[in-house]
Design brief:
Blueprint: H1 2-13, H2 17-24, H3 52-63, E1 75-85, E2 101-111, E3 126-133, E4 139-145, H4 155-164, H5 176-185, H6 187-197, E5 210-211, E6 216-219, E7 225-234, H7 251-262, E8 265-273, E9 293-305, E10 326-328, H8 332-349
Antiparallel strand pairs: 1-2, 1-9, 2-3, 3-4, 5-7, 6-7, 6-10, 7-8, 8-9
Length: 360
Amino acid sequence: MEAREDDESRGRSALTRRGALLGMGAVAGFAAVDVGAFAYAGGWLRPDALTPGRFTDRFEDVYGRHDGFRRNHAKGLSATGTFESNGAGASICRAAVFKRGTVPVVGRFSLGGGLPDQPDKADTVRGLGLLFQMPDGQQWRTAMINLPVFTDSTPQGFYERLLAGKPQPDTGKPDPQRMAAFLQRHPETAAAMKIIKQSPPSAGFADSTFNGLNAFRFTSESGETFAVRWSVIPVDDGGQAAAPPSAARDYLFDDLIRAVAQRPVRWRLVLTVSEPGDPTDDATRPWPDTRRTIDAGTVTITAVQTEAPGNARDINFDPTVLPDGIALSDDPIPRARAGVYARSFTRRAEEPKSPSEVRV
């Protein structure tokens, strides 16, 4: 066992964007493990302290092992649609996705946590992953959640919070003393949680705003660079009226399925441009509401599908898969996520598959 861990540590400690892509094979898309699934980040963490393998092991320790499913955001629903760019995003980014026109997207709606059969709850973190497929073969992959800020500023902080939040066998809830000690060591997380509590969730998926949270660098045709965060904001409620949580085990997904069957569900892709002094390395800290925003176009989901071979079930959402014109910033989270995404993907790819809880 120790030799296996040593081999895994050596193999993963040198993980790069190219290595993550090779780990995905030919499958295109996203892994909807949480926006907070992190790991060893190019030497930023000591290899003996944290690796993608150990991080993935921790998710399995907290949620149990469920063969064939993602280690986080295990419960989900695949989707397809389009992104229609209005051309406005091209003012700050040369990526082909922002040129006026329409490109196909593959998406996945999900709930945070590693339980593929968990009952839907209004306060469970909701995720939306999107893959934008450009005509020249480039892709842009992004995994977003319905929180206004992220809970942790570093991969190590997330790992420690995962440990502190593990349910106790006798109560089924985290040890309050352990969580209190964690928050005392991480005031940035305590501050983020206060912001999150002030933003109650919407009724369902179709009327949720999903935020990318991490900052990325956009480069324009003229070579000017901008630090940017993005969100998708619902155009309307999509006809979705959420039933009470007790109405059905999968009520959030059932309502989304009904909404998409009635008509396409749409979101505006909004880019937020930073100003000097705005943090680009810490997703727990929001940017002021006065920052410049650009409505770049409309994401439209036209169909949803039960997870199965050939759709988002087998897609790895590596946030470092970016088109020309979009690059990583100094935020350590996306680089770290790539390692865990690859590790989670390779494990579940080799495991037998069970039917998804959510059926269309």
